[in-house]
Amino acid sequence: MPRVVVDVTLKSEILDPQGQAILSALTRLGYIGVSGVRQGKHFELDVDEGVDESMVARIAETLLANPVIEDFTLHWQ
Amino acid sequence: MPRVVVDVTLKSEILDPQGQAILSALTRLGYIGVSGVRQGKHFELDVDEGVDESMVARIAETLLANPVIEDFTLHWQ
Amino acid sequence: MPRVVVDVTLKSEILDPQGQAILSALTRLGYIGVSGVRQGKHFELDVDEGVDESMVARIAETLLANPVIEDFTLHWQ
Amino acid sequence: MPRVVVDVTLKSEILDPQGQAILSALTRLGYIGVSGVRQGKHFELDVDEGVDESMVARIAETLLANPVIEDFTLHWQ
Fold it and tell me: Considering CB atoms only, which of C16, C17, C65 is closest to A17?
């Protein structure tokens, strides 16, 4: 069965305090070499053969992401 | 600058009520052809050239996922 | 040890698609009498006696919430 | 209209890596006096007068929390 992944992230101009918290924690714990962290949501949908990208995009815009503050990407796995 | 993506999902044997809620909502809203939804977390890390997969895996196990209940995958973008 | 709870929600004028998904699922599953659902984040902090509300508010604004899109409330438990 | 709040947290014996990340970040940023952070989910439901606690508990167990790994509390606001 096909699986499609939808990843939702805050738009890049919107501050992500929890990503910032992870970045601070990395520094504190001695991890060197990470300069940015953004956190988002990840969805995996098992779909029938007939489901196409435009339908998944409509689902993402309606139920998974708020297009005003978030971007999403989708890819088939 | 390289970017690495870490996706964290509940292990498949652990019930995901919010994925279930999205699946019910899809049915209610008339979307046909989706048979399963799982929700997880998505992280994007901007890293230096010297950061390798094993270091990202250690970060994921320590700060991003709980290995007892969650799986993670990572890929370079 | 005192515990303080910080609850973070999207500002009321910002659409919450995942709250909407839960609301649709409730209807689909036959639950009657719920007219709105909003989803947010919940944090529990164990703090020393000397930690006061203004310090917790600074923590919330910096690490837990994005004041542009989210509101937070705090209360002692 | 009555509002009921459901807060969902990982059971106390289950490691919460993102709470740990916030705690590390607090130390790194110079905040003194916080000894523990747990992260959870927060839901606000607007309900009719006829909705009682047992119905909200059923909703929480079905759609908001996974009772195997999470606890929830509910209170009227």
Answer: C65
